[in-house]
Amino acid sequence: MSIEEPRNTMSPSEAEDVRARLAEEAAALHRRLDERSLKEEELRADCLLDAADVSSTAEALRQYQAHTENEGALLARIESALDRLENGGFGYCARCGTEIDPERLRELPHLEHCLRCRTELEKSRSDPH
């Protein structure tokens, strides 16, 4: 199987629209992650101060940390998409090089894989063998 050389077939105005949308999403995620960091510090302090509520506060802290990890991963995908917009490869699967469905890309411009590769990757993650 040969990997197709990625190329950017977007018009300059479409690329600028996507860039602006991704940059806006990245800025919002940076703000939320900063806010989450402060909230996590408060929850940790609550764990130390209120021994009676340690279990519920610890659970809230675990949930906050999980959300923070998810948002951090999304931010990394958005920043990667911005890099691909600048350096080429945006809109093409990072695994096989085929074009990502434009409809999917319009909805989720941070996508890195075509549907086939994403399905295969998810299957391999869930398969214990």
Keywords:
mainly alpha; disordered N terminus; flat; 129 residues; 4 helices
Describe this structure in words.
By secondary structure, the protein is an all-alpha fold. The protein contains four helices and no strands. It has helices at 12-49, 54-87, 102-107, 115-126. The chain starts with 11 loop residues before the first helix and ends with a helix.
Helical proportion, percent range: 55-70%
Helix-strand pattern? HHHH
Q: What Rg, in angstroms, do the CA atoms define?
A: 19 Å
* Class of secondary structure makeup: mainly alpha
Quick recap:
The protein is mainly alpha-helical. Helix content is 70%, strand content 0%. It starts with 11 loop residues before the first helix and ends with a helix.
Could you outline the blueprint of secondary structure elements for this entry?
Layout lengths: L11 H38 L4 H34 L14 H6 L7 H12 L3
Helix pairs in contact: 1-2
